[in-house]
């Protein structure tokens, strides 16, 4: 499991990529929580279908105090054959963004390659998108 943080200078650029581009379209949004006036929760939808709605909510409502998006890779077995689910959790709060990763196995295994495979994919994903992240202390 990774705990990552984004440089605060990157947040505005990242939010534009997240909400206006297809960067996260390979993911499902399992849960989206936006803490603004009102509090809004959206569950289980493909990100590419939900993204325009989330963009409009954020654009029209007062600046959110917090945004949580629990992403899951749409095709986890492309990353690892024993992957049942691969999660990338985004948390926006206090003008900063943090990420955590998590995995779920299809079958119990003592082999420990699933977590590193997913964590490496996530690091490469951000690197390819030119998004600077660092390990959270």
What does this protein look like?
The chain has 137 residues and is α+β, with helices and mostly antiparallel strands. It has helices at 11-20, 47-60, 114-128, and strands at residues 3-6, 27-35, 39-46, 66-73, 83-93, 96-105, 133-135. Helix content is 28%, strand content 39%. The chain is globular. The two termini are 13 Å apart. The model has no long low-confidence stretch (mean pLDDT 94).
**How far is the N terminus from the C terminus?**
13 Å
Q: Roughly how many Å is the radius of gyration? A: 15 Å
Task: Give, in order, the helices and strands.
Answer: EHEEHEEEHE
Name the strands of the widest sheet in spatial order. Answer: 3-2-4-5-6-1-7
What would you call the structural class? alpha+beta
Q: What is the 3D form?
A: globular
**Care to count the β-strands?**
7
Mean pLDDT: 94
Name the helicity range. 25-40%
What low-confidence regions span 5 or more consecutive residues with pLDDT below 50?
A: none
- Total domain modules: 1
Count of alpha and pi helical runs: 3
**Strand share of the residues?**
35-45%
Give a short summary of the structure.
The protein has 137 residues and is of the alpha+beta class.
SSE order and pairing:
Elements: E1 3-6, H1 11-20, E2 27-35, E3 39-46, H2 47-60, E4 66-73, E5 83-93, E6 96-105, H3 114-128, E7 133-135
Antiparallel strand pairs: 1-6, 1-7, 2-3, 2-4, 4-5, 5-6
Defining key terms:
globular; 7 strands; seven-stranded antiparallel sheet; alpha+beta; 137 residues
């Amino acid at each position: 499991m990774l705990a990552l943080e984004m440089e605060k200078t990157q947040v505005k650029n990242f939010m534009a990529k997240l909400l206006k581009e297809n960067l996260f379209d390979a993911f499902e949004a399992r849960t989206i929580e936006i803490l603004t006036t009102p509090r809004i929760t959206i569950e289980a939808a493909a990100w590419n279908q939900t993204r325009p709605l989330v963009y409009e909510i954020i654009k029209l409502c007062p600046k959110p105090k917090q945004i949580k998006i629990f992403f899951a890779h749409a095709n986890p077995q492309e990353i690892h054959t024993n992957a049942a689910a691969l999660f990338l959790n985004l948390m926006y709060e206090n003008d900063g963004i943090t990420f955590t990763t998590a995995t779920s196995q299809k079958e119990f295994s003592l082999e420990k390659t699933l977590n590193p495979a997913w964590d490496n994919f996530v690091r490469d994903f951000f690197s390819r998108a030119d998004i600077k992240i660092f390990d959270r202390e």
